[in-house]
Design a protein that fits this description.
Largest sheet of chain A: 7 strands, parallel
CATH architecture of one domain in chain A: 3-Layer(aba) Sandwich
Number of strands of chain A: 16
Number of helices of chain A: 20
Radius of gyration of chain A: 22 Å
Oligomer: homodimer
Shape of chain A: globular
CATH class of one domain in chain A: Alpha Beta
CATH topology of one domain in chain A: Rossmann fold
Chain lengths: ~450, ~450
Amino acid sequence: MSSGLTSCPGSRTPLQRFRSERSTLNAGWLAASQSSGPAGPAANGRPPLRAGPRRLALSVRSQRRRERIGAGSFQWAARARRGANERAGGGASAAAAGGCEERLVAAAAAATGCGRRRAAMAAAEAGGDDGRCVRLSAERAQALLADVDTLLFDCDGVLWRGETAVPGAPEALTALRARGKRLGFITNNSSKTRQAYAEKLRRLGFGGPAGPGAGAEVFGTAYCTALYLRQRLAGAPAPKAYVLGGEALAAELEAVGVACVGVGPEPLQGEGPRSWLDAPLEPDVRAVVVGFDPHFSYMKLIKAVRYLQQPGCLLVGTNMDNRLPLENGRFIAGTGCLVRAVEMAAQRQADIIGKPSRFIFDCVSQEYGINPERTVMVGDRLDTDILLGVTCGLRTILTLTGVSTLRDVKSNQESDCMSKKKMVPDFYVDSIADLLPALQG
Amino acid sequence: MSSGLTSCPGSRTPLQRFRSERSTLNAGWLAASQSSGPAGPAANGRPPLRAGPRRLALSVRSQRRRERIGAGSFQWAARARRGANERAGGGASAAAAGGCEERLVAAAAAATGCGRRRAAMAAAEAGGDDGRCVRLSAERAQALLADVDTLLFDCDGVLWRGETAVPGAPEALTALRARGKRLGFITNNSSKTRQAYAEKLRRLGFGGPAGPGAGAEVFGTAYCTALYLRQRLAGAPAPKAYVLGGEALAAELEAVGVACVGVGPEPLQGEGPRSWLDAPLEPDVRAVVVGFDPHFSYMKLIKAVRYLQQPGCLLVGTNMDNRLPLENGRFIAGTGCLVRAVEMAAQRQADIIGKPSRFIFDCVSQEYGINPERTVMVGDRLDTDILLGVTCGLRTILTLTGVSTLRDVKSNQESDCMSKKKMVPDFYVDSIADLLPALQG
C-alpha cells in the first residue's frame, strides 16, 4: 500500500541493501549448487558448472570463507597488506613516500568510530600503519605481483574507454600473461556476451583465448545472470524470462535453456490503463530480468510488474550501476535506474548479480578455484570493484582512469558510514600501465 | 560516482526524504512568495496568488505554524482529538465501542519508545486515551462536523474508483455543501487539469462551481507544480520545462508561463550511446518535471539527466506514489517509479509537490486561508493523505474504499519507525457515505 516514500527498497541503507542481496544470492546459489546433483544440468551443450563432490566442496569452502569474512573480513585484507607492506619496506615509509598517501593516511588516522578500531587492528597486524590506498610504486607492484597468481580486472574505465584502449594497458596485460598470471575480467555490463567481450579484448590487444575457449576469462553479468537462473530455475519445465535487456543478455540466458521474451521495443498498447493491463502475457515466465535496456518503457515496466505478481516469479537485476560512463566525462543512465523503477512498482527487492554482490565473484571462484589471498581485484569504481574485492578478501587496486577519484577515497575514509569505510582500496595507480615497470624489471 | 547502492535517494529513510522535500519546498515557496512583490506575477491572465501584505502574512503565519508543528506537531492533533473525544463521550468509551478500536488502542498501548511517549502525552491532553483511529460513528461525526468548517478530500479511492462514484459519496458531499462546509480536493494525480477534475466532480454528482470558477476547489499536482515553478522560475525570461508527463501537466505549466517540451513519445534516436547523447536539447530549459508519463522511455531518462546537468535546472516530481490503483485490486506503476529512475541517474533529489509533501497543503492554505484546527483531511492512503493531515495538524479520516486497510493502521501503530507512527488517522469510515446519517440527522 505504501508509496515510494515508505517503500523498503527506497529506505534501505547501502549496507542493508548489499547484505540483503548477498544473503539472497548466496542462499540461492548454495542451495541450488547442492540440489544440482553430481552431474549438474547440461544446458544446450554448454558444459555444466563443476558438479558433484568438487562443486559441493567449493561451495562449502566458499561458505566457510564467507563466514570468516562475515566475522572479520579485515583479517584477509590485513594479511594481504602486511605481506605487501613488508616487501614495500614498511607501511610507514610507504605512507611517507607521497603527498597523497600522507593525506589519505592522515584522513584514515582522523577517521572516527569503526575507522579507529580498524586503524588499531591494522597497527597491530601490519606494523604501525594500515597501509590503505597507497600508490602502487614499481617496487610495491613487484612485491605484490610476487605474492599473487590471479588478477581480476573490471573492463570499462580500466582496460578501455568506449572503443579506445587505455594507453599501455594492453602491454601491461600481455606482460602479466607472460609472467604466468591468470587473468579474469569481471564486468557489470550486460550488453555483451562472453564471446563478444573476448573478441573486444583481442581486438584492442589484450589477448586471451580464441576459438572454442574464447570468453572463458570473461565474467559479465549477462553470463552470470544465466548461471544464476540455471540454478534458481533448475527443474522448471521450459522456463521463460521476461527480459528488460538486449540480445546479448537474451543469448546468454537461452544458452542455459531459459527462453526470453520482451527483448526490443514495446510501445504503449491501447488507449488507457485498463487496456495497458489487458496486453497478453506469455505463459511460463518464471523470472523478470532487468539489464541494460535502451528500449525501456512504461509499457515494459507495467508488464514486468504483472509477471512479478505471478507466484514464484523471480526478480533479477544484472547490476545497480546508476551511470554508464563514456568518454570525456559523458555518461548515460545505468541499469540501476531501471531496476529501481521496477523494484518500486513491484514493491520487491531484486536479486542483484553484478558487483558488489559477491555472487559474481562466486562465479569466478567456481570456475577458477580462487584463493582470495593470492588474488587482486583491479577496478575504477570504489562502490562496485573495490567494495567487491574488500568484501571477498582480495587485495584491491583502484585505477584512476575511470569513475572514482582519490577525493572519493578520502571521502570514504572520513565517512562514518560502515559501507563507505569498506570502499577503500589497498593501492591505487594512475593507470594499469603503471604495472609495466614492475613487469619489465 | 556512486552507484544506486550508495546513492542518497535510495538510502534516505522515509522521514529523511519527507523532511528534505518539505524543507526544500517550503524554503523555495516562502522565498519566492516574498520575492514576488506586492502584485505577484500575473501569468497568462490567470489571477495571481494572493499577493502583497496578506500573502506575506499568510506565509509568515504558515511559517510559524510549521515551526510549531516542527517543534511538536502532536499538540495540534491532540487538541483536535480532545475536542472530538469530548463530544464523542470520551475516548475511553469510544475505544470500547468496537472490536477494532480495542485492537488498535491495545496496539497503541503496546507500542514502544516514541509510541509510549506519544500515548503519555495523549493521556495528559486527551483524558486517558489517545483516541487514534476510532470508527467515526454518527454521533462522533456530528461532533466532528460541528467543530470544522473545511473538509479536504483525496479523490481516487475516496470519491470514486476509475469512472464509478463510491455509492453514497455524492450525496454525502452534497449534504456537506448544504451545511455550508467548504470543500477542497487534493490529489496527487497529475494527469488532469483543475478544470478536468471539476468536470469529473460534476459529472459524477459531487457538484462544485461551473463556468469561470470551475476547478477553484481542486488542488491537483499538475496545478500545484505550476504554482511551484511560477515561484521558483520567477524572473527567468521565457522559461521552459522538460516534461515527463501528459498534456494536462503541460497545460497547467503553460498557463503560468512555463513553456513545455518533451510531451509525448520520444523513441530511441541513433545507433548507440554517443548518438543518443547527440540528440539536440532545447535552450532555456530551467526545470525537469516528472509526472505520470505513460510514454516514459530510456531516451527520455537520458534527456532529463542531460538537462539536469545544466546549471540551475530544477528537478521536480509531482508525487512519489509507487502505484496507481484501478478497480478490482489492479494497479499500474505510479509516478514515483519514474521519479526514482531520474533521481538515481541524475544523483539528485527531486522537489516533490504532492502529498505527503506539505507544499500542496500550503497551496490550499494560500487560497483558502485554512485554520488547521477546523480542517479535516479525508483520504484512503496512510502514507500520503493521512501523513499530510497529521503533519499539517489537521484532523484525519481514513476511508476504507481505497488503498490502505485497518491492518496497515495497526502495523503503523506497532511500528518502531517514527515516520510510520505518524501515519495513523484520528478516525476511520468504511466509506465517506458513513457521514450521511450525521448530516441528515
